[in-house]
Specification:
Layout (H helix, E strand, L loop, with lengths): L1 H83 L7 H8 L6 E5 L4 E5 L10 H11 L7 E3 L4 E5 L3 H23 L6 E4 L6 E5 L9 H14 L3 E5 L3 E7 L3 H67 L4 H23 L7 E3 L1 H12 L7 E7 L6 E3 L1 H18 L4 E10 L2 E8 L6 H4 L17 H12 L3 E8 L3 E9 L1
Parallel strand pairs: 10-12
Antiparallel strand pairs: 1-2, 1-4, 3-4, 5-6, 5-8, 7-8, 9-11, 12-13, 13-15, 14-15
Helix pairs in contact: 1-2, 1-4, 1-6, 6-7, 8-9, 9-11
Length: 496
């Protein structure tokens, strides 16, 4: 009663620990999950705001660019005015405009193509031919505007968009590139895909192996799955059109969702290991108790056995019937064997090469007069063709135990068959009765320690028999067949 109550209290304490631990872990996971989600929401809002800033900056740059374009156009008009103005025209304003130009790059060349005047144009780098350098500028930067020809003096004027406008374009490109990088890098560990306007190209990614998205179909399937979790963010990038930012929950958030289940499995594994260790310790303690009891039993049997041997000798001297004394001596010898078995429990069994068929025959012959006269014992023994490494006392005891159980199952009346034969290298022993039989549920438990169907049994006989057959002799013992009302057959198999 006390042991059962202790087990229940231990179970309730373990259950309470599991519930509290899982509850607190779930609470922490929820807090971290909410915090992670807030970070993602802030990141999404920041992406939208930066996209609006990029769009506004582009509008501002376009306005500034228009002003710079007008400045270049006015500069070209001033040159044309000077070229086309009649003699005597006041060119002070136009001249001041040209002199005060500090933003528009200008190159003036003669008929030979040599530069005779330049303004707002960087000098050629060291080691670069001057003529080739300026020709390159005229072909690239200044090719967008038509040159102005002064036939009278044999000169040509080339000009480009202003330095300020060019820097504005470069700044815009850097801003777009910075926006793309920050959108991905500052994504708070969230897997991100930035898709171009055609929805077939990955512009930038973070936390996603894009090497696996090497076809438009795979890419589409992936970002459609991401869109099911979170709505994508549309982003307009000047000069590149609309882009879409797809994102999904972070790896940390995903792991947090499954963390309580993983923890539950770990706790269950720990409890299982603890149970197995506890059970093994308990079985080891029980084994020590049984070993102690067995050795004490063997010791206690020694005194009456010596006395019985003396009484047998005394009866023989008084002329008691020889047949009765012979059977009595057999029982005394059997008691010696039993005492020896008990004394050796817990010790390593000694196996010797022996004839198993002979052991079966001797045990069956010994048990025949010691069972009910209403039980017919039948021996079906095959030819003697081999030997086994065995312990004769232990194997004999197992067979005795099976025979006694069969007799009990028949209530002392019926047919008991003992079979033994060789099949190749395998030696098989069967003990079959036509008694009560067993249902399958009982047959599966008959070898469990402590299980018994008898009113006054300890449930140790078949358990010890199984240990002797399988652990000592490395054989196999099983219920070959059993049916309620028809009987049971136990089978042992040993390999030579």
């Amino acid at each position: 009663m006390y042991d059962t109550l202790s087990k229940r209290l231990l179970f309730l304490a373990a259950a309470a620990i599991v519930v509290v631990t899982l509850g607190y872990t779930q609470h922490l996971s929820s807090i971290i999950r909410e915090e992670e989600q807030r970070k993602v929401d802030l990141w999404v809002e920041a992406v939208k705001q930066r996209a609006e800033l990029v769009t506004y900056t582009q509008t501002l740059f376009e306005d500034l660019g228009s002003e710079e374009k007008k400045r270049a156009d006015r500069l070209a008009s001033a040159y044309r005015l000077i070229q086309e103005a009649p003699n005597g025209t006041d060119l002070t304003f136009a001249g001041d405009f040209l002199v005060n130009n500090n933003t528009v790059p200008v190159l003036i060349t003669n008929n030979a193509g040599d530069v005779v005047y330049k303004v707002n144009v960087d000098p050629p780098p060291e080691g670069v031919v001057e003529r080739a350098y300026y020709d390159s500028i005229r072909r690239t930067q200044m090719s967008r505007n038509p040159p102005i020809r002064f036939e009278e003096v044999g000169q040509t004027i080339y000009y480009a968009e202003s330095v300020r406008l060019r820097k504005l374009r470069e700044a815009m490109d850097e801003l777009i590139e910075s926006f793309i990088s920050e959108t991905v890098i500052n994504s708070a560990s969230v897997p991100v895909l930035l898709i171009d306007s055609t929805a077939t190209k990955v512009v930038k990614s973070q936390g996603i192996d894009v090497s696996k998205l090497d076809t438009p179909e795979k890419l589409q399937a992936h970002y459609v799955a991401m869109a099911e979790d979170n709505p994508p963010i549309p982003v307009y990038l000047p000069g590149e059109g609309w882009h879409m930012v797809f994102y999904e929950e972070s790896a940390v958030l995903t792991q947090l969702r499954y963390f309580p289940a993983v923890q539950l499995l770990l706790i269950a594994a720990f409890l299982l290991v603890a149970y197995l260790v506890f059970s093994a310790s308990r079985r080891a303690e029980q084994n020590r108790v049984w070993v102690g009891m067995a050795k004490e039993t063997a010791h206690q049997l020694g005194t009456p056995l010596s006395s019985l041997m003396a009484w047998s000798g005394l009866l023989a001297a008084k002329g008691v019937e020889e047949e009765a004394l012979k059977e009595m001596d057999k029982d005394i010898a059997r008691l010696h064997v039993v005492a020896e078995r008990f004394s050796k429990i817990g010790s390593e069994a000694t196996l010797k090469e022996d004839n198993p068929l002979e052991v079966v025959r001797e045990t069956a012959e010994y048990m025949r007069p010691r069972v009910s006269k209403h039980v017919e014992m039948v021996q079906e023994l095959g030819p003697d063709t081999g030997h086994l490494m065995l312990s004769r006392p232990l194997l004999s005891w197992v067979l005795e135990n099976l025979i006694r159980n069969a007799v009990d199952a028949m209530d002392g009346e019926g047919v008991l068959t003992v079979r033994a034969h060789w099949r190749g290298d395998a030696f098989t022993i069967e003990v079959e009765d036509n008694g009560k039989g067993m249902i399958k549920a009982v047959a599966r438990k008959v070898f469990d320690p402590g299980f018994t169907t008898k009113d006054r049994g300890w449930g140790l006989g078949l358990s010890l028999a199984k240990r002797i057959v399988e652990e000592v002799h490395e054989g196999q013992i099983l219920v070959a067949s059993s049916e309620p009302g028809k009987g049971t057959c136990f089978r042992m198999v040993f390999q030579a």
